[in-house]
Design brief:
globular; 19 helices; single chain
Length: 466
């Protein structure tokens, strides 16, 4: 018997009825030409798509959805009705199934959900298991949800093909993009006019097609590595001239600004006494936001040093934030991925400039041969490029803080800037505090050993996640 208890005949009748409804609903078509890129997010909320259910997922993705072999290969995490799929040829969608597709998901859980993950043993209870009941392929619908890098890459494809969205979804996303134009019932309407005329029944379905307009390239971004190298060379040639010119032009302004700042600090000293405030120069993503961050070294500078970038450059924070989003989208451990990039820089695959970093980002997003190699981890990159493998300690030593102290401070939730001062009596005092808190004896030597063990285990996890 089928899992849902229905006979195959009743399922076929239900699917036929759905097909008749689909034809009727097509009269309620909505089209958005040059839609804002944010419309892609509607595919993350879960939308209905037409397809032939009862066939292997592999056939559905290729024949019904029109995905290329490369696009299918980029689907690292596939969840069908709450079960992780490892074999696309064995998995079968049923009428009203829910299918989630992602390139990768963050953390240990995300790694376990990947196809044929080395940690898939952690999800045995939710791994898809095919049964002996096979359905004949029939017209129907499933709910599709896209996540991470797959959302950015495939949402335009599915929107161009057409999806079924509720009036509630159209209202939610349409309100965010009032400048978009809509074609509906043979009329060209502004988004505000469309939403005003949209019926109040939020569960009504509409067949939505949209052409996503491409986001404009940010100024200064190179389209290829030749351009990146030329830009870097031009920047180096004119850097001294620009600095001199800027200093001459802003000297008076800087003096005035310094005086104004001094006056403002003096006026607000009493008000700010005893309070901490967040400052732009504080450590990246730090929840504490102390009033006196270490200006000589900040947490985000570790990646900047690893990539050979100047921490004070305006692009540096943007690149580090983008790197964290990308590593989550790909489902890769950030430290392992940054180490792969460091080796690729060393091999001359890109210059150590903001444009070089962006070049690697684009290669990984495109799943190019170089991008795929970076995703395989430091050991694979070192072997492919003929370099010496760098373990975690070698990378962490680029930080001025002792790596083993940084590791256990991070686990305690304490500020990593304290690692540079945690020596001798201070380290012994921390051991005494932990002894008093947990009721067992800790020594300074044991804390250092714990830090080394943490680094070792992080190394093992990072290499497994590649």
């Amino acid at each position: 018997m089928p899992r849902n208890g229905q006979s195959q005949a009743s399922q076929s009748q239900a699917s036929q009825s759905q097909g008749d409804q689909l034809k009727a609903r097509r009269l309620r078509g909505v089209h958005i030409e040059s839609a804002s890129p944010g419309w892609a997010l509607i595919c993350q909320s879960g939308v209905l798509v037409d397809c032939r259910v009862g066939q292997p997922l592999e056939s559905m993705l290729k024949d019904d959805f029109g995905l290329s072999p490369g696009q299918i290969a980029g689907l690292e995490a596939i969840i069908l009705d709450g079960s992780s799929v490892d074999d696309l040829a064995a998995a079968q969608a049923r009428p009203q199934s829910r299918l989630a597709l992602a390139a990768g998901l963050p953390g240990v859980a995300g790694l376990a959900l990947k196809k044929d993950s080395p940690l898939k043993g952690l999800r045995n209870s939710i791994t898809y298991a095919a049964d002996n009941q096979r359905l004949d392929p029939v017209d129907g619908q499933i709910t599709l949800a896209l996540y991470s890098l797959v959302l950015r890459k495939l949402a335009p494809h599915f929107l161009a093909r057409g999806i079924w969205a509720t009036a509630k979804q159209l209202r939610r996303y349409g309100a965010s993009y009032p400048k978009d134009s809509v074609e509906w019932n043979g009329q060209s309407l502004s988004m505000d006019q469309f939403l005003e005329n949209l019926p109040n029944d939020l569960d009504d379905l509409y067949f939505l097609t949209a052409t996503i307009k491409e986001e404009a390239e940010k100024p200064g971004k190179a389209k290829n590595m030749a351009e990146a190298e030329n830009m870097a060379e031009a920047e180096n040639m004119t850097e001294a001239e620009n600095m001199t010119e800027a200093e001459n032009m802003t000297e008076a302004e800087n003096m005035t600004e310094a005086e104004n700042r001094a006056e403002a600090e003096k006026a607000g000293k009493a008000e700010k006494a005893g309070k901490s405030e967040k400052r732009d120069e504080g450590c990246l993503n730090c929840p504490i936001g102390c009033a006196k961050p270490n200006k000589a070294w900040r947490h985000q500078d570790e990646l900047a040093v690893l990539w050979g970038l100047e921490p004070s450059l305006p692009d540096t924070k943007e690149l580090i934030d983008g790197f964290k989003r990308l590593s989550n989208d790909l489902g890769l451990e950030a430290f392992e991925l940054s180490g792969s990039m460091d080796l690729a820089f060393e091999a001359g695959k890109a210059p150590r400039t903001p444009e070089g970093v962006r070049f690697f980002f684009k290669e990984m997003e495109a799943l190019s041969p170089l991008g795929a190699l970076l995703g395989q981890g430091r050991e694979a990159v070192a072997q492919a490029l003929g370099l010496s493998f760098k373990d975690s300690n070698a990378l962490l030593k680029q930080s001025p803080h002792p790596p083993e102290r940084t590791a256990f401070l991070d686990c305690l939730g304490l500020c990593q800037q304290a690692a540079g001062h945690l020596t001798g009596e201070a380290l012994a005092a921390l051991a005494e505090l932990l002894t008093a808190r947990y009721g067992r004896d800790f020594t300074a030597q044991e804390l250092t050993a714990m830090g080394s063990e943490i680094i070792k285990r992080e190394e093992e996890f990072a290499r497994a996640s590649a």
